[in-house]
Write a structure and sequence with these properties.
The protein has 246 residues and is mainly alpha-helical. It is 67% helix and 5% strand. The chain has a two-stranded antiparallel sheet. The termini are far apart.
Length: 246
């Protein structure tokens, strides 16, 4: 009898745990453990995983309106903890939390999914206009990761279910995180030459767990889903209290 070799796959729950852990490392570095640069490098993988899951969620949700309202509610709840962590004030209008970016990405993907399904010029035009509007909103609204974050969600929607999908995802993440993104650089010496590498480039490592995703939800269900949403504002508030109130 021929033996069946089972491939290793990650579930949606595994991806969520990986992203939450990476995000926590990044925020711990920013607030409590400065100097441990590896923590923020590891943290770069969090957003692409969250973006991927938003694109997947838009594809599979049975109630898009409820999904969008849930993101909006948690974005509003998270804004004060985000401002406290980011700027040490309860009101900082110059940078909004990442939940708003994910919401804008979700709205953009809605139009792109409709264009994919209808395959008409009108649907394609509306999808592109929706994407442009979401990108402008993320950029002008100064949300975390901004318009580049919105495009990251869109990339996981556009580059899916065809032979070169992974290549498209890799190219998009390379462009969005190392070419168009402006942030910190690190210097690496290679073969006697010093290379300046965009720190945000570590985000490309998120493709490893994403490509290991097998399409299953995994354990946790709604408890993990809502718990991960609640974790975002709660952990930022806790880090702020540890740093400034201890």
């Amino acid at each position: 009898m021929e033996k069946t070799v089972q491939k290793f796959h990650l579930t949606a729950a595994h991806l969520r745990w990986i992203a939450l852990g990476a995000m926590l490392l990044d925020h711990l570095w920013a607030m409590v453990v400065p100097g441990s640069q590896w923590m923020t490098y590891a943290g770069r993988i969090a957003f692409p995983i969250f973006a991927f899951q938003i694109a997947e969620g838009a594809r599979h949700t049975s109630d898009f309106r409820r999904y969008a309202l849930r993101l909006l509610a948690f974005a509003c709840v998270s804004e004060i903890p985000f401002d406290l962590m980011y700027a040490s004030t309860a009101f900082y209008p110059f940078h909004q939390n990442v939940m708003f970016t994910l919401l804008l990405g979700l709205l953009a993907v809605r139009g792109l999914e409709r264009a994919r399904a209808e395959r008409t010029v009108k649907a394609a035009a509306l999808g592109l206009l929706g994407l442009l509007g979401a990108w402008l909103a993320g950029t002008a609204g100064m949300t975390d990761y901004g318009g580049m974050g919105v495009l990251t969600v869109a990339a996981f929607c556009v580059f899916r279910d065809f032979p070169l999908a992974r290549l498209g995802q890799a190219v998009c993440l390379l462009l969005l995180n190392m070419v168009f993104f402006r942030g910190e650089y690190i210097s690496l010496e290679l073969l006697g030459r010093v290379l300046e590498i965009q720190t945000q480039g570590f985000a490309l490592l998120a493709l490893v767990p994403i490509w290991l995703y097998g399409g299953e939800k995994g354990r946790g269900g709604r408890v993990l889903q809502y718990g991960s949403y609640a974790f975002y504002p709660l952990h930022m508030l806790a880090l702020y209290l540890i740093k400034f109130m201890a």
